[in-house]
Amino acid sequence: MENNNQKKRMLSGIQPSGDLHLGNYLGAISNWAARADEFDNYYFMADLHTITVRQEPADLRRRSLNQLAQYIACGLDPEKNVLFMQSHVPAHSQLAWVLNCYTMFGELSRMTQFKDKSAKHKDNINAGLFTYPVLMAADILLYQADYVPVGEDQKQHVEICRDIATRFNGIYGDVFKIPEPYIPKAGARIYGLTTPTDKMSKSIPDGCIFLMDTPDVINRKFKRAITDSDTVNCIRYDKENKPGVANLMNIYSTLTGQSFEQIEAEFEGKGYGAFKPAVAEVVIDTLTPIREEAERLMKDKAYLNSVCKDGAERASYVANKTLNKVYKKVGFLMPER
Ligand code: TYM
């Protein structure tokens, strides 16, 4: 379980299956960036995971590199964070195969994301969709990560990763560090602006704020945000009865650091007509510099490719150490050098 660095290790990834959105930013990336100095950091584009759902190859390639630009623009300095494409480190697929043989059919059948995605993509319920959490476990365990910073929806996957690692260690000794999910107190679950009981997701673009949205688009989306299922036009945190307002308050609170009570006081006597543009404004203030920097970086393909190359080398070094150990433990004959 080697990590000679004194710092604890963080690892996470995001699928480049769509453009990054405010949920990804608040639930994941902003927390990665905020803690870069405290931890030893590994962050990747989970491109292997995306093909569990059909992708347009040229789009996937473009989005993968753009996502890297957006990671950097969000504050992930490649000097302080190892940034890489998952498919550039073959050890991910190699360990996933081994772990498949230590994961039970029953436990994979219980995964919520599998149930949701197989309901959504009925014509393509492939084996990859089913074994997706095993690849994710491999991603994490290869790096002996201490913490996995994710939004609430990924907690179940980190838990199955812990179960798989514990099972493997139970047979072969302490091979894997058992990772902890690292879920932010605020922003762990951002809901869609037009569907405030479903998580914000690229599949409903009208209710989803993308990091690359311009101020005009952001204003328009917030204007159309659903605020209420009751008729009282007041800013009050009531997740049950006013999920739309609660979601906007959560976004506002995460970005400004204000508590719900402070927000209620600030908007006392004012209605949604004042609150929605205020939320839009803090979102625009946060995302504009990110968009501008990402646009600049996206034009610099040579730089992005050099970050990928360096990241893949640094990641492979750590990943291969774990993979070799696993190969030895399970009894594979090591090649003569
Ligand atoms: P993915 O690509 O769906 O989401 C990436 C990250 O963004 C968070 N997130 C949200 N947080 C708050 N509110 C939302 N509406 C919202 N939508 C997404 C997710 O919780 C996640 O942290 N399986 C993973 C990717 C992955 C991974 C890994 C993560 C592959 N291997 C290893 C950690 C470690 C996924 O599909 O996330």
What would you say this structure looks like, in words?
With 337 residues, this protein is mainly α. The protein has two domains: 9-188 and 300-330, HUPs (Rossmann fold, 3-Layer(aba) Sandwich), CATH 3.40.50; 205-295, Orthogonal Bundle (Tyrosyl-Transfer RNA Synthetase). Helix content is 53%, strand content 7%. It contains 13 helices and five strands. The chain has helices spanning 22-34, 47-50, 57-73, 91-100, 105-109, 112-120, 127-142, 155-172, 215-223, 243-256, 260-266, 272-298, 301-330; strands at residues 9-14, 40-45, 81-85, 147-149, 180-182. A three-stranded parallel β-sheet has the order 1-2-3. Strands 4-5 form a two-stranded parallel ribbon. Helix 4 runs parallel beside helix 13, helix 7 (127-142) packs across helix 8 and helix 10 crosses helix 12. It is globular and about 75 Å long. The chain starts with 8 loop residues before the first strand and ends in a 7-residue tail after the last helix. Bound molecules: tryptophanyl-5'AMP. Tryptophanyl-5'AMP is lined by residues 12-15, 23-24, 26-28, 46, 49, 136, 139-140, 148, 150-151, 153-154, 157, 188-190, 199-200.
How many E strands? Answer: 5
Q: How confident is the prediction overall: mean pLDDT?
A: 95
In terms of structural class, how would the helical and strand content be classed?
mainly alpha
CATH level-3 fold name of the largest domain: Rossmann fold
User: What's the CATH H-level superfamily name of the largest domain?
Assistant: HUPs
Summed up, the helix count is: 13
Q: What small ligands are held by the chains?
A: tryptophanyl-5'AMP
CATH class call of the largest domain: Alpha Beta
CATH architecture of the largest domain: 3-Layer(aba) Sandwich
Radius of gyration (CA) equals: 21 Å
Share of helical residues: 40-55%
Q: Largest sheet, order of strands side by side?
A: 1-2-3
Q: Give a quick account of the main beta sheet: strands, pairing sense, barrel closure.
A: 3 strands, parallel
Which residue ranges are poorly predicted, with pLDDT under 50 across at least 5 consecutive positions? none
DSSP strand (E) fraction? 5-15%
Distance between the termini: 24 Å
**Count of domains:** 2
H and E string: EHEHHEHHHHEHEHHHHH
The geometry reads as: globular
